Amino acid sequence: EYWTTVNNDGSLLGDRTVKDFLTFHTAHVKIPTRKVMYDELGHYETFGHAYLVQNGVCARFVDRYHKTKAICGGFRVLSRTNIHEAIEYRSRQVAKIVSWTKNEVWYGSACMQEAFAEGIDYENDYVKVNKYCY
Question: What digits encode the pLDDT tens for the residues 40-95?
């Protein structure tokens, strides 16, 4: 299993701990996450990044309208495993997005078939990168 479930109350499912989370150290510690979002149009999958808070784990995602969705609980966190498989769900992959101008890195969703990646930066702005960006 690549994912640790963070329950709605902030507890971790099963025998997982925050030590199982895959973390990437740059200017900010980043932990890739995934969430099934529900709205008036139905449900969809999105990726984002999690961060540890005093009472548990919170995360930031981009919603269908390219707005920040910050929640504490009710999502999954990319975690350690011994299985070597692609990390994706329904043709969406985890994307590492690099801003050379801001010297920041964050995580979001990628769609390789459509050649784009999207996410929310540390100022809560929606960012989309595609094959046509220079």
Answer: 888 878 888 888 888 788 988 888 888 888 899 899 888 887 555 556 666 678 88
**What pLDDT is recorded for position 44?**
78
DSSP codes, the chain: --EEEE-TTSPBSTT--GGGB--EESSSEEEEEEEEEEETTEEEEEEEEEEEETTEEEEEEE-TTS-EEEESSSEEEEB--S-----EETTEEEEEEEETTTTEEEEEEEETTTTEEEEE-TTS-EEEEETT--
C-alpha atoms less than 13 angstroms from C-alpha of 71 in its C-beta half-sphere: 22
Sorted by where each begins, the domain ranges of the chain are 3-130
